[in-house]
Amino acid sequence: MLAKTMHGLEDVLAKELRQLGAMNIKPVKRGVTFEGDLGFLYKANLWLRTALRILVPIGNFKVRNEDEIYKRVKEMPWEDHFDVDKTIMVNATIFSEKFTHSLFIAQKVKDAIVDRFRERTGHRPSVDTQNPDIRIDIYIHNENVIMSLDSSGHSLHRRGYRCQADVAPINEVLAAGILKLIDWKGMAHMIDPMCGSGTFLIEAALIAHNIPPGVFRKDFAFKNWKNYDAELHDFLFEKALEKEKNFYYTIQGFDMDNRVLAKAEENIENALMTDQISTSQADFMEFETDQEIKKPGIIVFNPPYGVKFEANIPELYNGIGNTLKHKFPGYTAWMITSSAEGLKHVGLKPSKKIKLYNAKLESWLVRYDLYEGSRKRKGSE
Prior knowledge:
The chain is an alpha/beta fold.
């Protein structure tokens, strides 16, 4: 199988798969290949926090032209995998000089599948590009073709708890990946001082309580396959719920905009985390230390970026640095940003810098160790 992820999270996903019990794990570009049985496929969709989707290869062959693609795809026993009354969609990914038009290739594959069903049953599956029952993936590298069924359906970042979103919210998979990269296990207090729609807060709470991220989803594509074993799936789902752990620290979210905070609170409620996560209105640049700040703790946040903030970037990031230094001594702060200009104005030296991508933006996850008093004084004591 192939679990797809974001650039920079391959090793994190490989570690997740190893801990879950996958075999023959191999990181590849923006993904990890692995082996497992049908039950493991269900577990992977339920438990993997940094996977976007999980593909199951069902065909592998070489082709020289589009007609050969049609012929080879039509020869595949699609009726063994799903019924004719299921809606389908084909996604094509191509790295080849011979084949350059992914939409045309996807159309060819769709035609081959539809024609096979029509010849055998007198009926044809319908196409649904928005919410199909069956997602089919064709990957072409030079002349090599891999045909796969997408077991996930909608991307796994769509957990099912986020109904409300702030402008440019951080992707749930990226948020979970960042929390994994900073080794968050729920053994400290956590603050997101610019929490937006609450994604970091909720993903942190799910990890701290060992709750699977897929617990709120009902629409996995594998449920539409002929080999779907509902009894096995339900058993694994129930077993997953039994693994929940207690969490003895606090998770706090702040935002200066009450309307944004209301969205976060609705998402937190959807995730059944209102008892675990507290939120309140606060301007990070004027953060009051009488807010209940507990230690030891970490700060994780995604400050604003983009065109409308461009003029204020130096001022904004300078203010972030000052606030971290003066209001959060003893904390470790992690910030994800795509602003290289902003990082120059923080005024703190990062102890770690990890390159990631936020959507298509090159970004950096930076760590600041906020010492009690000055570092120099601490070393001389």
